[in-house]
Write a structure and sequence with these properties.
This protein is of the alpha+beta class. It has helices at 4-13, 33-38, 57-63, 105-142, 145-154, 175-181, 184-205, 230-251, 284-295, 305-308, 338-342; strands spanning 17-22, 28-31, 69-75, 78-91, 94-103, 160-172, 207-213, 216-221, 258-272, 278-282, 300-304, 317-325, 329-336.
Length: 345
Amino acid sequence: MLPEPITSKLLQSIGVGVCLLDADDLSVLFANPAMSAWFPELEVGHPIGMDGESLTPNLIRKAADGPSIELRTRLKRRKIVLDTWVRSATHGDRKILVVECQNVSRLKETEAMIDSYVALAERRNRETEREKQQVEKLLLNIMPRSVYDEYKTFGSVAPRLFEPVSVVMLDFVGFTDMAVSADPSVTVAELNDIFTAFDRIGELFGCERIKTLGDCYMAVSGLPHANPEHGTAALRCAAKMMRYLRRRNDTHPYKWKARIGVASGPVVGSVVGIQKYVYDVFGPTVNLAHRLQSISEPMQTTILGDLADDLPPELGSTDHRTAAIKGFGTVEIATLNERAALKVA
């Protein structure tokens, strides 16, 4: 054991606050400089006071031989945090309490700073994840999921030939005049409402919406996944769209009249553009669907003759005829039967 003078010098020099108390009356037997600086109310030979900021008799006896407790005190103008231990000991026949305090203010400040950085990082991660979900939602709104997955994995999309598919091309009659005369916000809201309904109809029949261009709406059945019933799905989709418009026109002040063309054949699908990219399909089938739509009467769907020959039971066709289509010569066409279309669930 070290001689008492050396022990006293060690306690005086260390940065940890040390205080020795009589276990019976809690009078101060010794307090090193660090302890005296943190608790100037301590006086050797006098018991600790009841009005101390943190070192009180109740606290000392409660903390004796227990886990450390956290005390706060003030050193000049700065608040400091002290981890404090109270342990029982004996000196000769005298029972004493050893109070040890360690300044952990910088550690607490560092922990608080780390917690703040962690919270900031977590918040930024959540924001990044939300932005990622928004970008994904936007991309899925302009391209099929399989195409999006390919683009996300490889950074590009290889053009693909899809054969056969059926293209549904829809255009509104008199949209230009309406866009000029009506409130733009009303026109946009109406289009948004209608196209949202068309998207749901497309999902119902397995048709993938490819794009909208002004008042033009294009969807394809059999893309990106092959569907042997692509023609039937496209016709049912077209019939349901017309039925929706008829019912909507019965209750809305703005009347929307559409023309639809449906054609079957091969198309090429790919992402177009580098910065402002969009997924699109090309080929004669798209052009033919557009031509059929342009020769349709308002609220009618014009289809190819081969589609009319193989209609599902709930659909029918009428006005079978031949027509000279630019770029395609003379083709057999028909009109999707309006009364049969109304029976589509």
